Each structure stands twice: as structure tokens, then as C-alpha cells.
Amino acid sequence: SHHYGSWNNLPPDRPELWGIQVISITKKQTLELLDLLDKRRNIHINSLSGNTITAIAPGDDPSILWVGAGWEGLNKFDTKKEKFTYYKYDPKAKNSIASYRVNTICRDTSNLYWIGTNDGLSLMDSKTETFTNFRNDPFNLQSISSNNISSIIKDHSGIIWLGTYWGGIDK
């Protein structure tokens, strides 16, 4: 919903457009804006890979924090060194994370990280920082039920549970 008092100008005549700003810019202005964003991204190289945070998990080392940045991959933040390391999907690399999109992160009792993406489940070994990926195989009933993993939890017994889009719950 939209609060009228937060508008900088009069609200649109059509209530269905409230909360949406329509602007018109030229192609040249669009290119200049994209160039500016790229330059700003390069200036702040030691920061998160994206502004949309979809998941946070503590590291096995208390100074490490794992952060899912939506469509911008996985980030490792070392709080002592104040340094970020990025893990992005690379279709050519066998041990790459499963997708660009990170939805959820869960650390298990062996200090392995289960990372739910929109295109499979990644298991990351924090020591080697490599990924093993799992995807739905319609011919294998033991595979995950859906590639779009929305949530992961570890229960009190250490069992990992997956919540999926259109696939239900996996164990």
C-alpha cells in the first residue's frame, strides 16, 4: 500500500499506479546512468556484490559472515579484515555455485553450507570453497523435487530440510 504523505508531488490520478514512478529519459541519459553505476561499483570494490540481501549465515569462524545477495551471488565477509570475497555462477566451472540467484543459506553440523538457489542446491565446503551441486532429475525420485530452493533449515537432529517452489518439502 502507499501512504499519500510520502509523495513528493501529487499522486497519480489512477490509484493502481500509486507506488510506481513513471519517468522518461533518452537513450543517451540511460547510457550515462549505466556508466555512472559501473564507475560507482568499481569505486566501492570492497563491498557487497549487490544491494538485495536474501540470506545471511554465520561462518564456522566467528569473524566470517556469509551473505546471499539475490541475483548477485554469494558473498563472504571477513569482519576482521573488513574484506568481501564473491562467489558467482560460472556455467563453465564445474565447482561453481549452482546459479546467479542465492535465496537461502544454512550451515550444517559439519560446517558445510547448503545454499538454495533458483536453479539447484549447492553444497559448499568452507575449507576448499568449492561447490557440489544438486538438481532435480525427473527420472530419479531421490533427487531434489524442484530446482528453485526457497528455504533451508537444520532441525535439532541435524537433518537438513528444503522448502521449494512448486516441489514441496525435501529432506
Provide an overview of this structure.
The structure is a single chain. With 171 residues, this protein is mainly beta. The chain has one helix at 27-43, and strands spanning 55-58, 64-68, 74-78, 83-87, 102-107, 112-117, 120-125, 130-134, 149-154, 160-164, 168-170. It has a four-stranded antiparallel sheet with strand order 1-2-3-4, with no helix packed on it. A four-stranded antiparallel sheet has the order 5-6-7-8, with no helix packed on it. It has a three-stranded antiparallel sheet with strand order 9-10-11, with no helix packed on it. Strand 6 and strand 7 form a beta hairpin. It starts with 26 loop residues before the first helix and ends with a strand.
User: N-to-C terminal Cα separation, in Å?
Assistant: 37 Å
Side by side, the strands of the main sheet go: 1-2-3-4
Approximate strand percentage: 25-35%
| Biggest pleated-sheet summary | 4 strands, antiparallel
**Residue runs with pLDDT of under 50 for 5 or more positions:** 1-12, 14-23, 40-44
Average pLDDT number: 80
Class derived from helix and strand content: mainly beta
Number of strands: 11
Order of H and E elements = HEEEEEEEEEEE
Instruction: Report the principal-axis shape.
Output: globular
Helix % is under 10%
**In DSSP terms, counting alpha (H) and pi (I) runs of 4 or more, how many helices?**
1
Radius of gyration: 20 Å
